[in-house]
Amino acid sequence: MKFKASQIAELLDGSIEGNQDAEVDKLSKIEEGEEGSLTFLANPKYTSYIYTTQASICIVAKDFEQTQDINTTLIKVENPYESFSKLLEYYNQVKLDKSGIEEPNHISKSASIGDKPYIGAFTYIGKNVKIGNNVKIYPDTYIGDNVVIGDNVTIFAGCKIYSETLIGDDCTLHSNVVLGADGFGFSPDQIGVYKKVPQIGNVIIENHIDIGASTTIDRATLGSTIIREGVKLDNQIQIAHNVEIGKHTAIAAQTGVAGSTKIGENCLIGGQVGIAGHITIGNRVRVQAQTGIGRNVKDDEVIQGSPALGYGDFNKSYVHFKNLPKLVKTIQTLEKKLQAYEKNSN
Question: Is the whole-model pTM more than 0.90?
């Protein structure tokens, strides 16, 4: 799809310097711009590229003043970065604006589907499923019985949503997300043979939540595993049964959260963090990558290490960790001097 400079300027409330009929059908970095592409200049370090870029249109600040001839058409706006981000969002909406129901698929007769759906091929929708308006379900997706999905939800290819799962409005599930698989519940008998504990709860995903590719969220043993409003989960995260994650918390890739742990609001948790079960993490906690958490964490703590230490304590300790060989050698030297002193004293 092609867009003219005049259309883009109208969308961004910007002014044009150059050819208002210039057309673009792709986006590019300013240093890699080519004919037919749209780019932007926000960082002054990249100013030199505006005189060499081959991009057909470039978004710049209103106060930009050229010092050389420019081949590209300029669209001047208040904030180039925000304007370009707005275009990216619009471009993404256009690109993903699919509709209709593809074949083959299976949709239960008792399922209800709202307005303007997109349902990709090889999708299975079970009994009593309720799907809201403007929901996009990409191919090879499984939706179990009694699932409820709100409005404006996008579910990318290969997701598996087990029965009884509840998903709110404006959520995005990336490929191969699994919601509602059984929690890791087993109990050993008298001879050490593990027996499965039935997992009869569900998963609740509130509004405005993004879940990265191949992330798994287990159903509760009883009650619900709950992901609160605005949470952002990266790829390949494991959330165990009966976990609760507070509003607007963000968790990076390969983190694992064990069962029944409660994480507060507005936390930032780095990649490859391990969180033990049955603990409570407060609000606004910052957790550095590869930290291991086995204790309750108070509001506003910043922690690192395994087991986790206060961030400042960890950095002070790490200085000594690096110097351990030197410290050992110093101690050995002092011991030899002490032994020699004691021998001479006798």
Answer: no
